[in-house]
From TrEMBL:
It catalyses: L-histidyl-[protein] + phosphoenolpyruvate = N(pros)-phospho-L-histidyl-[protein] + pyruvate. The gene is ptsP. It is found in: Cytoplasm. It comes from Amnibacterium soli. Its main location: cytoplasm. This is Phosphoenolpyruvate-protein phosphotransferase. Its EC number is 2.7.3.9. General (non sugar-specific) component of the phosphoenolpyruvate-dependent sugar phosphotransferase system (sugar PTS). This major carbohydrate active-transport system catalyzes the phosphorylation of incoming sugar substrates concomitantly with their translocation across the cell membrane. Enzyme I transfers the phosphoryl group from phosphoenolpyruvate (PEP) to the phosphoryl carrier protein (HPr). Belongs to the PEP-utilizing enzyme family. Keywords: Cytoplasm, Kinase, Magnesium, Metal-binding, Phosphotransferase system, Sugar transport, Transferase, Transport. Residues 11-281 form the PEP-utilising enzyme C-terminal domain. Its cofactor is Mg(2+).
Length: 310
């Protein structure tokens, strides 16, 4: 079946009834763009910019960043490219931003929280992105990581707009942000759910810790309930809800996520063919039925089984 999916024609993401589901790529830089285009990504749903900063003792200059961003954007003329502002901390520590003395860095100053304490770095990154977008044909969207309440979305989106970003949004990867998604969507133009962190924070299980790895399962109905809440909020606000965590790369779970209201799925390009093929086997009504079945389960394993038989 895997081979069949790989050989199937590359079409835009859609369900059997024609409902569109944008299929996007997760990338870490310009080195990943050729594969994404070749495998039919309709754009980028998550550009993790940390990789540009990882090896440095300080942030790259605006000019250096602008060159890197422009090179990525140029690979997607006329397409959406969602760039994530620097997500430093926890599993992605940066020496010049993070305090290595924190006892629980996943619960500490990471993502937008640490950018707010170094606003110069955030301003420089947003400026470089706006300047790069002005030179290319891609449609640039920019989102903040690790947002936990509406005020943080108001802060980020206002600053991004001030610096020339046309479509600012936020990631939903903390349960509080999922529960308050409708308020967040008053300032954010879109939300993208990061299921890796959303699972970690919902199940209170460190994503880097092997002893609790069994809890790091995005099929968990508690995670799916939060996704459903965000899906409802997005539909009510008429704004885009995407998924950019690993969950989107699991074909059966991708169907459930669409049933819960996701309009786009972003994944490692290698997963696009299988997800594309699976989506074409169900109508929106069937996807919603699988989602409803998964939501009634009491564990990740039970949710998987319930969706499979719905
Ligand atoms: C996530 O948390 O699901 C996500 C997409 O971001 P990262 O894995 O880079 O934290
Ligand atoms: Mg994350």
């Amino acid at each position: 079946e895997r081979r069949a999916a790989a050989n199937a024609p590359i079409t835009p993401g859609a369900l059997a009834d024609g409902t569109k589901v944008q299929l996007l790529a997760n990338i870490g830089g310009v080195k990943d763009t050729a594969k994404a285009v070749e495998l039919g990504a309709e754009g980028v749903g998550l550009f993790r910019t940390e990789f540009l900063f990882l090896d440095s003792k300080s942030a790259p200059t605006v000019q250096q960043q602008k060159e890197q961003y422009a090179a990525v954007l140029k690979a997607f003329p006329g397409k959406k490219v969602v760039v994530r502002a620097l997500d430093a901390g926890a599993d992605k520590p940066l020496s010049f931003l993070n305090d290595s003395e924190e006892e629980n860095p996943a619960l500490g100053l990471r993502g937008l929280r640490v950018l707010r304490t170094h606003e110069d770095i955030l301003r420089e990154q947003l400026t470089a992105l706006a300047e790069a977008a002005a030179e290319t044909e891609a449609e640039l969207w920019v989102m903040a990581p690790m947002v936990s309440e509406p005020e943080e979305s108001e802060y980020f989106t206002a600053l991004a707009r001030e610096l020339g970003i046309k479509v600012p949004g936020v990631m939903v990867e903390v349960p509080s942000a999922a529960l308050l998604a409708s308020q967040i969507l008053k300032s954010a133009d879109f939300v993208s759910i990061g299921t890796n962190d959303l699972t970690q924070y919902t199940l209170a299980a460190d994503r880097l810790l092997g002893t609790v790895a069994a809890f790091q399962d995005p099929w968990h109905p508690a995670v799916l309930k939060l996704v459903a809440e965000v899906g409802r909020a997005g539909a009510a606000a008429g704004k885009s809800v995407g998924i950019c965590g690993e969950a989107a790369a699991d074909p059966a779970l991708a169907v459930v996520l669409v049933g819960l209201g996701a309009k786009s799925l972003s994944m490692t390009p290698a997963a696009l063919a299988d997800v594309r093929a699976e989506l074409l086997t169900v109508t929106l009504e069937q996807a919603q039925a699988r989602a409803a079945a998964a939501l009634t389960a009491g564990s990740a394993a039970a949710a998987r089984a319930a969706a499979a038989t719905a």
